[in-house]
Amino acid sequence: MAGCNTVHMLMEARYDLSKESKDSMDVTLYQSIIGSLWYLTQTHVDITFVVHFLRRFMEAPVGDHLAAAKHLLRYVAGTLLHGSIPSRRRRDIDGVQ
Q1: Which of 25, 76, 80, 97 has the fewest CB atoms within 10 Å around its CB?
Q2: Which residues contact 79 (CB under 8 A, 6 or more apart)?
Q3: How many C-beta atoms surround the C-beta of residue 90 within 10 A?
């Protein structure tokens, strides 16, 4: 997704995703994307709700679900520096050496 157009909203307001659709897609690709996003929620807590919402469709995702996941990836690409990074050493938190 290098060089993609970034977006500034997590998800469109009242975006309707349902399990009823005729488009089928590669389940493994969708599960891989959602799994990666789930891992990313450890440092980007702002995406947690949307990732949980998209996880509901992991059994039988359709094209709309993949489009929503890609939209979320574009959001993450635009906010890479906004996450919180946990410190490994106590002195980094206190500023004491």
Answers
A1: 97
A2: 6, 44, 46
A3: 8
Range of the domain at 42: 27-79
Q: Tell me which residue has tokens 């970034």.
A: 6
Alpha-carbon distance of 64 to 85, in angstroms, equals 32
The rounded distance, in Å, linking the Cα atoms of 22 and 10 is 25
pTM: 0.74
Tell me whether residue 15 is in a domain: no
pLDDT mean over 50-77? 90
Rounded Cα distance between 15 and 31, Å, is 20
* Closest to 74 (Cα-Cα) out of 30, 17, 8: 8
For residues 69 and 61, what is the distance between their CA atoms, to the nearest angstrom? 11
